[in-house]
Every structure is written in structure tokens, then in C-alpha cells.
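Second attempt. The first submission of Glycine/betaine ABC transporter had a stray character pasted in from the spreadsheet, which I only caught after the job came back as garbage. Lesson logged: always re-copy from the clean sequence file. Corrected sequence (303 aa) follows.
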Amino acid sequence: MFKNKFSFLALILMLSLSVVLAACGSNEEAGTEGNDNEETTASIGEQVDYEIVGIDPGAGLMKLADKALEEYELEDWKVTAGSGAAMTAALKKAYDDEEPIIVTGWTPHWKFSSFDLKYLEDPKGVFGGPEQVHTIVRPGLKEDLPGAYTVLDQFEWEPNNLEDVMLKIENGMDPEEAAAEWVSENEELVNTWTEGAEEGSGEVTFTYVAWSDVIAGTNVISHVLESLGYQTDLRQVEAAAMYAGVADGSADALVGAWLPTTHEDYMNEYGDQLEDLGPNLDGTTLGLVVPAYMDIDSIEDLK
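This time the job returned cleanly.
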């Protein structure tokens, strides 16, 4: 009798324990599923903390990004200013970890060769159409340094040419070395820039901003002029100073004028003191850029 009663109690205890363990397991599983559901249902804004990673605060691209927030009624969003280098560093980190990120972007840029990216559609047309990169010189350069003027006036290339130089620099090559290597690999194109240009011995001073495309282009044209006997002086400045230096004659030229939108304010201020030689590159694009793995296609999706 005692033995049977003991066995019966033991059986009850074991069944009770099984029920408790099963309940705990169900709660843990449910909790895990709940967390997963919370993560997968988070909006794009929540995933990136409603932040768009920007570049230099004075850039026209930043003004357009702020305008996009207004036009698309993205009241909770912000565009964080920084620099081109900081933007690409944040993009690389997020991309390597397959995390969501939204950045202000433009083409040509080496990031499109290194990462699988896409522009968000802009149905309201806030970022406008394709832009051009212009060459701008100080008045009187043609008379003072005619050979250099001829090269600058004939300087024209394609986005893929520029991206080749940018990628060399991004992969660790010194900008001067990258420019020299690219020039040696593209003699036929470079000869179209130097055709009819007389050799010289004067100094040509360039102003440029610390954007990877402008650094690449300035170093390339500088190397070409040096091959004709000119000395060059490259001065890295802020965007406004890039134009002001050429306008007041303390610099001779710049080859990184993004027009008509990005540098519109600077041309409005200094344009009548400059000589615009026209575009050296066509087919640029501005907009908001995300990794291709993100499930988003339009700026409107940010709402």
C-alpha cells in the first residue's frame, strides 16, 4: 500500500514538472518570436534612427537633402552633416555588417564600384536631373599661361574614367601616383587634351575640395600640365573658398564645379568674376543612396 502510494505521488510530481518545463519553453519560444517580429516589423526610419548620413554642411547636395525632407513630409527625419570621407566610412561599416543605412550620394563615385548600391527613386524630382562638372578659370589665364589654358579648355572625360582614378586612390594609392598611372594608361585620351598646347614654365594654382572625385580630377589635370613643363600648386579648401580663390586671382583654376545645382550658390556669388570653360564631365547624378539589400525603392517609402 505504501509503495503504491509513493509511486503514485512520484508520478504526479513528474507530470507536474513536465508541465512546468513545457510552459517555460513555450514562453521562451514565444518571447523569441516576439523579438523577431519586433525586429522585422520595424520601419526603415526606426532601423536607421531616422537619420540620413550627409557630407559637408555647405554642399548643395545637403540643401537638396533637406528640401527632400520637406517635400516628402519626413518631419521625424534629419540629415547629419559631416564630410565625404565620414559618409563613405559609415557606409562601408554598415555594408560590411549588412546593416541598413541611407546616405547622400552622387555619381561618379568609387563607392558604386566597391558596393552594390541603388538610388532611391525621387518622384517629386527634388534632386533634379543629371549635372555636369565644369572647369573654371580666372580671367586673364589665357593671356598669361596660354598652354595651360588650352589643356584646361580641352579637358573632358567620362564618369568611368574618373571612377578608375578614384578607385585607385581608395585602394591605397597616393593621389599623385594614381593620377600618373591613369595618365600613362590613357595616353590617347590625354593627347586630345594637350593637342596644340604649347609647353610652359609658369605655375598653375588649383583650388579643390576634399571630395574624392575632385581630388582625383585635380591630380590628373595637374599631372598632365606638369608633363608640359608647368609647375602646379594644389590647395585644398572649403567649397566657398574654392570659388573665391579663383575669383580674386589668388588661384588660377578649379576642375570640380558641380553645376547647375550643387554649386549654384557659389556661381551666383562669384560667377561674374570667373570664366566658365564648360563641362569636363557629363552624366552626374545626385540623390539618396542605400545598399541594394535594403527592401526600399523610393524616398516616399521613408514615410
